[in-house]
From TrEMBL:
Species assigned in the record: Rotaria socialis
UniProt entry keywords in alphabetical sequence: ANK repeat, Repeat
InterPro entries: Ankyrin_rpt (IPR002110), Ankyrin_rpt-contain_sf (IPR036770)
Name this protein carries in UniProt: Uncharacterized protein
Signal peptide extent: none
C-alpha cells in the first residue's frame, strides 16, 4: 500500500471521528508518522492537515491522538491551511486553533493550547481576539478572556491602525462586546494605535453614540487628545458625527473646549476648497460658531480680540452672536473671521500650521488679480512665522513681483519697499545663501520698478536708500559671496528654485543694472575685490567666465569701479586666465597692459616671499591688497600639501 492510499484512509478516519478506535494503532505502524501528520490534503478547494480536519469537526479525542504521535507538537499546531469559516467565507492561512474557535469547539481549542502548546497569536492573520471581535463572536471572546489566554489591553490588530481590542470593538460599534470588555477590565483610557488615541476617540470618529455612552459611563475621559491633538469631540465634529459631538460637548466644562470648537468650525472652510460655490462648509461653520457663542455667553467667557491689521482688511473678530449674525451670509467675511479665530488660538501655541492657510489664501487672491492684498497678507504671515521662531523666507514675494511685472501690473513703490525692508528683520540675518540671494533678486526687481515713468523723486530716493542700507550690512553667503558676487554670477540664475520658470523669465544673472545699482549706491561698503572661500574668486573672476551678452559691460563697470585685474584665485588664475570667450580675453588683455606700479610691487613682494605681515597690520588695506596678488593661490597649495 503506497503513502497516498494510507493518507486517504487516515483522512477518512479523522473525518469520521475514529469511530472504530483504529487511529492510534494505524499511526503507530507508520515508518514516518510526522510526515503523515504534517501532510496537507487537497479536498474540495481546501488545504488542510489531519489536525485542522479534527479541529473543524470538533473531534477532541482524535486531536489528542494526533498530538500524542507528533515528535514536534509546536510545529504541528503552527501549520496553516485554507478552508471556509462557519459563515461560508473563504479563510486563508488558518491554524487548527483558529478552526476550533471558529466552529466553537472550545474544549478542543483548550487541548490544542494545553497539549499542543499552540500560541494564541501565532498566525499571519490578526490575533484571535481581534478576529473574534471582527466576526462578532462573543463566545470566542469569552473563551479567550475568561481562560486568561489574552491580554485585553495589549492585544492589537496587525493592520495599519494597530487598534487594541477595545478600540477595535468601539470602532466597529459593537456595544455588547464593548460592554463585556469593559466589565472584564479593559482600560477605557488606554492609549493605543498609530495615532495614540483612545477607544472613545475611535467610537466618536465612526459615530457610534451608544458605544460612546457606554465608555463615558465607565469613566472614559473625553479630554484626552491623540498625537494630532484631537479630542474625541474634535474627531466627531471633523467627521460629521454631530450627535456624538454634541453629546461629548455637553460633558465638558473646560473653557479651552470653546477654542477647540471654534477651530473645528474654521476647519470647515480652511484651507479653502476648490469648489467655491459650495455653501455647505459655510453652513456647517455658521452652525457651530452659533453654538460656540451661546456657550461663551452661558459661561461668560469673552474673547481676547487682537488689534485690526491691514492683512485682514482691518476687520476684528465678532464678540457677540448678534455681530456674527450680520456676517453669516458673507462668505469672504466668514473666511476672514476664520483666519482671525485661528490666529488668536494658534499663535500662542506657535503652531506652524497657522500660516499655511494664509499662504493658500494669498494664492487665491493672486488668481483674482488682487496682488496688493496678497502681498499684505503674506507680509503679515512673514511676521507670524518670525513671532513663532520659525524660518522665514522672501521667495514668495520675489515670485509675486515677477508675476506682476510679467503681466504689466504696476507695483506700488511704497509696498515694494515695505517688503524689501523685511531683509533686515532678525529672522533674515542668518548666514544662509537663499536669504542674500532673495535680496539680490529684490535689487534686480527694484531696477525694473525704477523704470516706471510715474515714479516720484522721493520714491526713487527711497529705493536708492534701501539699496545703500543693505550694502552697508555687508552680508555674505556661507561661502562669503557678497551681493556683488551674486549679481554677476550665472549660478544665481540657476539657483532660483521656487516657481523657477516664472521668475527666470523676468530676472536674469549676471545682471548689469543690478551690479550698477550696487556699485553706485553701495560704493562706500562694496568691496570690488572681495574673494569667496570656494575658489578665492572676486566678482571679476566670476563674470569673466560668462558668455552672456551683459558680461563684457559688467567687466567694464567693475574695472571702472576699481576692481583689480591681476588678482589671483586659489587656482592661481587671474580673471584673464579664467575668461572663456575671445571677446572677454581681448577686453581683459587690453586692460592688463595698464597694470599699476602698486600692483607690480605687490606681485614682487609675494614672489620674493617678503614677510610684510609684520610691517602692516593684518586688516589694513595694504595688507589685503598684497594678499590678493597670488597669496590666495599659495595658501591653497600649502593647505593641499598639508592634507596629503
Amino acid at each position: 500500500m503506497n503513502d497516498l492510499t494510507v493518507y486517504d484512509e487516515l483522512y477518512a478516519i479523522v473525518c469520521q471521528g475514529d469511530l472504530s478506535n483504529q487511529l492510534d494503532a494505524r499511526l503507530k505502524v507508520l515508518p514516518d508518522v510526522d510526515k503523515a501528520l504534517e501532510h496537507v490534503y487537497q479536498r474540495d478547494n481546501q488545504q488542510r492537515t489531519l489536525l485542522i480536519v479534527a479541529a473543524l469537526h470538533g473531534h477532541e479525542l482524535v486531536a489528542r491522538i494526533l498530538l500524542s504521535h507528533s515528535s514536534n507538537v509546536r510545529n504541528l499546531v503552527k501549520i496553516t491551511g485554507n478552508t471556509y469559516d462557519i459563515k461560508g467565507k473563504r479563510a486563508l492561512l488558518v491554524t487548527a486553533l483558529w478552526c476550533a474557535c471558529d466552529r466553537g469547539h472550545y474544549k478542543l481549542a483548550q487541548t490544542l493550547i494545553d497539549v499542543g502548546q499552540a500560541c494564541i497569536d501565532d498566525s499571519s492573520r490578526n490575533p484571535l481576539l481581534i478576529e473574534a471581535i471582527n466576526n462578532e463572536r462573543l463566545d470566542t471572546i469569552q473563551f479567550l478572556i475568561e481562560n486568561d489566554h489574552v491580554d485585553i489591553n495589549e492585544t492589537t490588530e496587525y493592520e495599519y491602525r494597530k487598534y487594541n481590542s477595545l478600540m477595535f470593538a468601539a470602532a466597529l460599534g459593537q456595544t455588547q462586546i464593548v460592554a463585556y470588555l469593559v466589565e472584564k477590565g479593559a482600560k477605557v483610557d488606554y492609549l493605543g494605535g498609530v495615532n495614540s488615541g483612545t477607544a472613545l476617540g475611535c467610537a466618536a470618529l465612526h459615530g457610534h453614540l451608544e458605544v460612546v455612552k457606554i465608555l463615558c459611563s465607565a469613566g472614559a475621559c473625553p479630554n484626552i487628545k491623540n498625537r494630532h491633538g484631537e479630542t474625541p469631540m474634535i474627531l466627531a465634529y471633523k467627521n460629521g458625527q454631530f450627535d456624538v459631538a454634541e453629546y461629548l460637548l455637553d460633558l465638558t466644562q473646560n473653557d479651552l473646549y470653546i477654542d477647540e470648537l471654534e477651530l473645528i468650525a474654521c476647519s470647515f472652510i480652511i484651507p479653502p476648497r476648490n469648489n467655491d460655490n459650495d455653501p455647505s462648509p459655510f453652513v456647517k461653520m455658521v452652525n457651530l460658531m452659533r453654538k460656540s457663542f451661546k456657550i461663551r455667553e452661558a459661561r461668560y467667557c469673552p474673547k481676547i480680540i487682537m488689534k485690526p491689521v491691514t492683512a485682514y482688511n482691518f476687520e476684528t473678530e465678532c464678540q457677540t452672536l448678534k455681530e456674527f449674525d450680520k456676517i453669516q451670509d458673507d462668505h469672504d467675511r466668514l473666511f476672514i473671521e476664520a483666519l482671525l479665530i485661528r490666529e488668536r488660538i494658534l499663535l500662542p501655541k506657535k503652531l506652524k500650521g497657522l500660516c499655511e492657510p494664509l499662504l493658500m489664501f494669498g494664492e487665491k487672491l493672486i488668481e483674482k488679480g488682487d496682488y496688493e492684498s496678497c502681498i499684505r497678507l503674506w507680509e503679515h504671515t512673514f511676521y507670524l512665522y518670525q513671532l513663532m521662531n520659525h524660518e522665514t523666507s522672501l521667495h514668495r514675494f520675489v515670485w509675486i513681483f515677477c508675476k506682476m511685472l510679467a503681466t504689466h501690473v504696476s507695483i506700488s513703490p511704497q509696498l515694494f519697499l515695505q517688503i524689501c525692508r523685511l531683509t533686515s528683520e532678525p529672522s533674515q540675518k542668518q548666514n544662509a545663501s537663499h536669504y542674500i540671494k532673495n535680496t539680490v533678486c529684490l535689487v534686480t526687481i527694484a531696477a525694473k520698478i525704477l523704470d516706471q515713468e510715474k515714479l516720484t523723486k522721493a520714491e526713487r530716493l527711497s529705493i536708492y536708500e534701501w539699496i545703500s542700507d543693505i550694502c552697508r550690512e555687508k552680508r555674505t553667503t556661507p561661502y562669503r559671496q557678497t551681493l556683488l558676487h551674486l549679481s554677476v554670477n550665472e549660478q544665481t540664475h540657476l539657483d532660483i528654485n521656487y516657481r523657477a520658470s516664472e521668475i527666470r523669465q523676468i530676472l536674469s544673472f549676471p545682471n548689469l543694472v543690478t551690479t550698477q545699482l550696487l556699485l553706485t549706491h553701495g560704493s562706500r561698503w562694496i568691496n570690488c575685490d572681495a574673494v569667496d572661500i570656494l575658489n578665492g574668486d572676486t566678482a571679476l573672476h566670476i563674470v569673466s567666465q560668462s558668455n552672456k551678452p551683459e558680461a563684457l559691460s559688467i567687466v567694464k563697470l567693475l574695472l571702472n569701479a576699481g576692481a583689480h585685474i591681476d588678482c589671483r584665485n586659489k587656482h592661481n588664475k587671474t580673471p584673464f586666465d579664467s575668461a572663456k570667450t575671445i571677446e572677454m580675453k581681448n577686453l581683459l588683455q587690453r586692460q592688463q597692459a595698464s597694470v599699476s606700479l602698486k600692483c607690480l610691487c605687490a606681485c614682487y613682494i609675494v614672489e620674493k616671499q617678503i614677510n610684510y605681515e609684520f610691517i602692516w597690520r593684518k586688516d589694513t588695506k595694504l595688507n589685503t591688497f598684497i594678499y590678493l596678488h597670488d597669496c590666495i593661490a599659495k595658501q591653497n597649495i600649502t593647505s593641499l600639501d598639508s592634507k596629503e
